[in-house]
Design brief:
This protein is mainly beta. It is built from 1 helix and 7 strands. It starts with 6 loop residues before the first strand and ends in a 10-residue tail after the last strand.
Amino acid sequence: MDPARPEAWFAAINPYLRLAVAYIWRRSDFPWLGIWEENHLRAGAPWNGRVLTRGMEFGVSPFAESRRAMIDRGSLFGVPGYRWIPARKTVTMEYRALVMPAGSLADVPLP
């Protein structure tokens, strides 16, 4: 996420389904991107120790943490780590999501 650009984005490709997904959003709305993984660790349902996945989440905080921790830290690298929505106010934010064939992977052998 380039701080010099007004928009940020990420794209992910599933080579088995030959699909790509991408999200685009204003950095001023969501200045952080969290990346998490699940690697066959969670034994309980619905994972049952079989899940291998990666998640990408854009948001207003750099970490999954309590509101108190966000407020106490304030910012990270000069970027706010939370956002207030005043009482009885609304905030509208937009993002774009794209799903497309991952045609450039057509020659990748599938297992």
